[in-house]
Amino acid sequence: MQFGIFTVGDVTEDPTTGRTPSEHERIKAMVAIAQKAEEVGLDVFATGEHHNPPFVPSSPTTMLGHIAARTDRLILSTSTTLITTNDPVKIAEDFAMLQHLADGRVDLMLGRGNTGPVYPWFGQDIRQGIPLAIENYALLHKLWREDVVDWKGRFRTPLQGFTSTPRPLDGVPPFVWHGSIRSPEIAEQAAYYGDGFFANNIFWPKEHFQRLVNLYRERYAHYGHGTAEQAVVGLGGQVFMRRNSQDAVREFRPYFDNAPVYGHGPSLEEFTEQTPLTVGSPQQVIDKTLTFRETFGDYQRQLFLVDHAGLPLKTVLEQLDLLGEEVVPVLRKEFANGRPAGVPEAPTHASLLAQRTAAENTTEEAR
Amino acid sequence: MTAPLKLVAVSAGLSVPSSTRLLADRLAGAVRTALEGRREVEVEVVELRGLARPIADHLVTGFPGPELRSALESVEAADGLIAVTPVFSASYSGLFKSFFDVLDREALTGTPVLIAATGGSARHSLALEHALRPLFAHLRAVVAPTAVFAASEDWGPGGDAEGLAPRIARAGGELADLLALRPPRPRAEPEVVPFEQQLAALRAG
Q1: Containing domain of residue B59, as a range?
Q2: Do B57 and A138 touch (CB under 8 A)?
Q3: pLDDT digit string, tens, across residues A261-315
Q4: Higher per-residue confidence, A115 vs A195
Q5: CATH number of the domain that B57 lies in?
Q6: CA torsion sign, A341 to A345 to A351 to A355?
Q7: What's the CATH superfamily of A2-366?
Q8: Which residues of A124-148 are buried (b: 16+ CB within 10 A; e: fewer)?
Q9: A205 to chain B: which residues are within 8 Å by CB?
Q10: Does A206 have pLDDT greater than 90?
């Protein structure tokens, strides 16, 4: 089981001080947060991709390449990479390059993006969101697996005799997660390829995601990648902790009330009741996170959102200390308890390479 | 025996008691009367007043809280709908519109709907034709030809013999006829389109 954090990369005023960090400060803070994640023993750092203010991460592989040079163990990922408006050729190139620089510590999560104007800014049409995701990924998948590609599709200019360079490290493409908050088509896509499915469940009630995750699991088995229990599932979470839960609620409330996504809506109490958000003690976070397994089955990756809504860097780093010292060690132990033997870990470069080598050896022996 | 028809009346009245709710109840009664001997009807009334905050929360967060979810599910599962709003500033009330804004846009496709409104004077009655009817046309509902407007004076003398009562009966009869012809509503979950088919659709284009 992997544990990590994902960041939206918003530049938001701290409602308690009225101070807004500069883009430069926010970008540097994201790097500091990623380094801290490794330091406290987390496994994954994932950054969002946005092309409009108040967000800074428009160029995720640049940032992740920099973080790769400053870390040794951390898996670098995205949440999400826009498969609709990015050229799949550029995604293939950028992430293969990153994979080499990071010695394989790379995977990525694909998403469609729901900011209307981003589509026309990049020459696309939001009404074609699903077809774009399907066709662009089909090309990306091919570019990482075939050295010379001929391609003709509906959305991109055709390719003749094209080789995407560098080739994936050790010939092993980065593992892909497909992120979705509402589309069964994307769960189906993830299942078809035997890729991971990440349900970003942080803002919505669990019943909604249960349907999507179950559909993905069923279809994963249908396509013969393994049993439904072996499908590769990732989930989001959102936490704010202090040792004493009343302190956590008191301190987080102004950030919650003014948060860009859900602020000025339901109360903190209603929202924690209805969504995965936990504001309280480390033990409360542990308890809530353990319920995810009851809802969605044994899963492979848990990412927490800890750095949005204007929370100052110092506070975020304290959150990471609590996550790394008190929450994740217990979760690792608890999630390992009663986990059926057949349920795999999340694929990594090393495991995918070993899998391929094993497959090749079997083929050799068969000759 | 055919299962009873499920009729849901949405009332956006704000005062308690409310003439909008009263009109919704009268219309539901008229539908029931018109269906007597043909089909059984179960009526559920959804009062939007109590859902005002959950509806606003949904607009902000993108998901319904538990009470609102149950109301939305009732409307989605309805065989027929009665939708009644007070007229505010020449149109339906904001609360009424917001409820239909957060409803799944496929939820009312093909559903028979009776539209009605209340207001201070009959001068507002065309709000039904220029605001409510296009809204439900957009939602691909089947809107009954008669829309019922009740002005304050309709509740007094003159409202009964020539005015409101016959209009309620006529509208109720129209919705009843639309409902009586209606086969049981399919409740199947939408099927997922197999991936090969999704890919093939792109190649064919």
Answers
A1: 5-204
A2: no
A3: 888 999 999 999 988 999 999 999 999 999 999 999 999 999 999 999 999 999 9
A4: A195
A5: 3.40.50.360
A6: positive
A7: Luciferase-like domain (3.20.20.30)
A8: bebeebbbbbbbbbbbbbbbbeeee
A9: 63, 69
A10: no
The alpha carbon of residue B90 and the mean position of all alpha carbons in its chain are separated, in whole angstroms, by 19
For B202, the closest of A154, A188, A208 (CB atoms) is A154
Please give the backbone phi and psi of residue A10, each rounded to the nearest 5 degrees, phi first.
-85, 145
Whether the CB-CB separation of A320 and A5 falls below 8 Å is answered with yes
Confidence category of residue B186, pLDDT binned at 50, 70, 90: low
Interface of B with A in 21-60 (CB under 8 A): 56-57, 59-60
Residue A261 C-alpha, separation from nearest chain B C-alpha, in angstroms: 7
Q: Is the ipTM of this complex over 0.90?
A: no
Among A residues 246-275, those touching chain B with beta carbons less than 8 Å apart: 261-266, 270-271, 274
Q: How many Cβ atoms are within 10 Å of B125's Cβ, its own excluded?
A: 16
Q: Write the DSSP symbol of residue A275.
A: S
pLDDT > 70? residue A27:
yes
**Other C-beta atoms within 10 Å of A244: how many?**
11
Closest Cβ opposite residue B198 in set A154, A185, A266:
A185
Our count of domains for chain B comes to: 1
In angstroms and rounded to an integer, the radius of gyration of the C-alpha atoms of chain A is 20
C-alpha B187/C-alpha A298 separation (Å) is 30
